[in-house]
Amino acid sequence: MNLFVCLKQVPSTNKVQVDEKTGVLKRDGVASKMNPYDLYALETALRLREKHGGKLVVGTMGPPQAQAVIREAYRMGADEGYVFSDRRLGGADVLATSYTLAQAIRSVGDFDLILCGKQTTDGDTAQVGPAIAEHLGIPHAAWVRKVELEGNGVKVEQQLQDVMETVWMPFPCLMTVEQDIYMPRLPSLKKAKEVKDRPITILGLDAFLDTDANHYGLSGSPTQVERIFPPKNDVERETYEGPDCDKRIVDTLKSWKFI
């Protein structure tokens, strides 16, 4: 069974800056970590491989420093890792990002099951995973909280808004997983020593089947940020002290027509 897990490196702080011209996050020099939701997808893949055998490949789209999340995945038990890195891929919206990852996965090999976290903490769209499946032309299920192999496919339980739904999908397929599916394991010291020299393959746009740069990055993004700016800090404060503060508060609220 061949498994592929999509990972993403995200800022580990909410104090990030945005390029006002392009509307994309400034990631250089910002402390980063693996997207927390991806840990659940990785743990799910590890358990499936342990139970059914096969190979677990991980990949991430980002700058060269995104190798850090691949290293973390190695320490948890992944077999092989890729970073899809090319300046022409930068600034992509959901559509361009999902298309890039679909092309990247195709360039790496054929997989029975592709797993993604349900969303990322920096974008929060929860759309990239299903969009990858659409680009690949394979079935997919989102918000998966339970999975088991059945025949030539998987049976998954989805946590929808009001109901639970169970569906079966044939291989190859894709799913995004909920955070309560499994508790992610901690990297072991023994595994860290074993994989410290394991290579990471970096692939650029020229390795994809579609090498037209107009389909990627800002050029391939139909949605553009029109304007972005920091919020105005226009909070006003009044402090009342003394024996008549209650009356003054009531009078102020009345003047604002709140009461």
Brief digest:
27% of the residues lie in helices and 24% in strands.
What does this structure look like?
- This protein has helices spanning 36-52, 67-76, 94-108, 128-136, 189-195, 245-255, and strands at residues 2-7, 9-11, 32-34, 55-61, 80-84, 113-117, 140-149, 153-159, 164-170, 173-177, 201-203.
- Helix 2 (67-76) crosses helix 5 and helix 3 crosses helix 4.
- The mean pLDDT is 90.
- The chain has one domain: 3-Layer(aba) Sandwich (Rossmann fold).
- The strands form 2 sheets. A 9-stranded mixed β-sheet has the order 9-8-7-10-6-1-4-5-11, with helices on both faces. The protein has a two-stranded antiparallel ribbon with strand order 2-3.
- With 259 residues, the protein is α/β, with parallel strands linked by helices.
- Strand 8 (153-159) and strand 9 (164-170) form a beta hairpin.
